[in-house]
């Protein structure tokens, strides 16, 4: 089942009178349960493509269909609701809310969606356990290590059961051990919850774990390889 | 997580900044309230003094008297008209009086004075001269006698500061000299014994007596029992001269009046100025002095008085004082405006810093599904809470100061007092109890916050999420 369909998408920036084509005619699709990475040199369009898929940006041409929604047809406020319902984001620099505890961060999107408190707390407990932080419910982000913060961010992204997770360089700020732990957790969630993960990364450790590696260069897909890594 | 919970926690993420911003609002509100309370309290006192001791709320006059206040512009008192005016439900009494000028002399000293002829019994229904009779005074003799008493040393200092001061009530004297409640029982009898001042008010039917202001008494060296000479010009250019025994001394709040005040009975004044049955004005004592009721009463009385006589209110009669106060009021408002402008920049600076620091967080929140309106609500509520924290603290802190300043007004001494007196004001600054001016300070702070919040809301609605995430 296709979760994301990208058809002939282009994104052009007009920066200081120079036209920059960050994404140039990309056509791709992602299936439910994909564990895919988008790789490529800096400036190849990885993050732009991720932003387009996540509805944070609009393509200059082409269309993106996510979970049956044509993103170009959604109004800005509908896009925000769309992201909340269908997309989970994991950022390179964790981006947790500093004034909330780990558990509150995990439950934040659910509270925006007005989940009943008991259901929300049960889901939070479940995810905190899944990311190995069941003993850190009440810790503030400043009391957690980088790896732990990123795990909380993953749990937060997963909480409202989105269609897929977009992770932009999720291991870039982590040491090897933390990165491996995080990837273990993501793989496990991918396997057990059949959650779709789409990464952009430079990290070889992530690439090694991926079951699909898409390479971008100058905004174009130059290769799309499915590997035989088992989840 | 509710908006208010999130806003409350965000408030304390940078505790120092929140406290500094709230403190700046606090100080602005506190100083603005205290300044305003002093200013409005002083105006209130001046208006009240001039109304109670001199002009009254309403007066019946010859229409020309306001522009040329002299005896020739007086009027003959019509007892039928007075009765009709007194029938108005808000009128307590109509008290005719003569007001003119003369030279007052005692011994080798002479002073130009204002002579007021009143009906002693009915005067108290309109004015308050009777209650201003000096009963205690720190005369050189009294001070000398007090030196011989075993009194606390701090009182000695105050005796020097307030030498010559006159008091109508023993409790006022105790308060000004700094006699605490504990010492009142033991010290007050000693003080009153040595400072007791002779004198009483005028009585109807007797002639040849005068009440004089304390300042005039000091200048002429005339005390109760002494005789003063009044010389001047009477009705239609007749000469006016008479001898009057000082019956008592009054302490008038306005130094300008206090230094020139002579009060005799209306009959004596009519005889002195050769103006039988006449008055320059009639003070209309009223029951309810609220502005609306006062205006309505004035309107009703105008209809009764007809075109021959004018009914003036205290504002018309004291236009100069009102203009002075209005000018002073504007300068005070400008000062407060500058104070708030400084605070507005402080609050705005906080908003700018907060928006810059949290740009990426805002981008993240919008990207994960928080609506911009909700985010703006959180940020707006944070600013509102900081502002309200400062406003509430400022208002609470100002209350004891204002209540204290109202109960025990600031009384200037020495050079400062002299300066006030030179301007014709009593050197006392009472504070006005909380009134609508408190509400205005809150409104001003809320307006500043509204501008700051609008700025942050606009920024959030215009935020480019992708750029913010890169920040």
Structure overview:
The complex is a heterodimer of chains A (231) and B (471). Chain A contains 7 helices and 10 strands. In chain A, a hairpin with a 2-residue loop joins strand 9 (212-217) and strand 10. In chain A, the strands form 2 sheets. Chain A has a 6-stranded mixed β-sheet, with helices on both faces. A 4-stranded antiparallel β-sheet of chain A has the order 2-1-4-5, covered by helices on one side. Helix content of chain A is 35%, strand content 29%. In chain A, helix 3 (102-112) crosses helix 4 (117-130), helix 3 runs parallel beside helix 5 and helix 4 crosses helix 5 (146-158). Chain A has helices at 46-53, 76-86, 102-112, 117-130, 146-158, 176-193, 204-209, and strands at residues 2-15, 18-31, 35-39, 61-66, 69-70, 87-90, 164-168, 196-200, 212-217, 220-226. Chain B is an alpha+beta fold and 471 residues long. Chain B has a domain at 3-49 and 321-470. In chain B, the strands form 4 sheets. A 6-stranded mixed β-barrel of chain B has the order 3-4-10-7-9-8. Chain B has a two-stranded antiparallel ribbon with strand order 2-11. Chain B has a two-stranded antiparallel ribbon with strand order 5-6. The radius of gyration of chain B is 30 Å and the shape is elongated. The model of chain B has no long low-confidence stretch (mean pLDDT 88). The chains are: A alpha/beta (231), B alpha+beta (471). At the A-B interface, helix 2 and helix 3 of A face helix 1, helix 15 and helix 19 of B.
Query: What do we call the CATH homologous superfamily of chain A?
Result: P-loop containing nucleotide triphosphate hydrolases
Shape of chain A: globular
Order of helices and strands of chain A: EEEHEEHEHHHEHEHEE
Tell me how many strands of chain A there are. 10
- SS class of chain A: alpha/beta
Helical run tally of chain B: 19
Q: What oligomeric arrangement do these chains adopt?
A: heterodimer
Supply the CATH class of chain A: Alpha Beta
Largest interface summary:
A-B, 27 and 21 residues
Q: Structural class, from helix and strand content of chain B?
A: alpha+beta
Radius of gyration of chain A: 17 Å
Tell me the number of structural domains of chain A.
Answer: 1
Q: Proportion of β residues of chain B?
A: 15-25%
SS field, number of helical segments of chain A? 7
Share of helical residues of chain B: 55-70%
Uncertain segments of chain A = none
Helical residues, percent of chain A: 25-40%
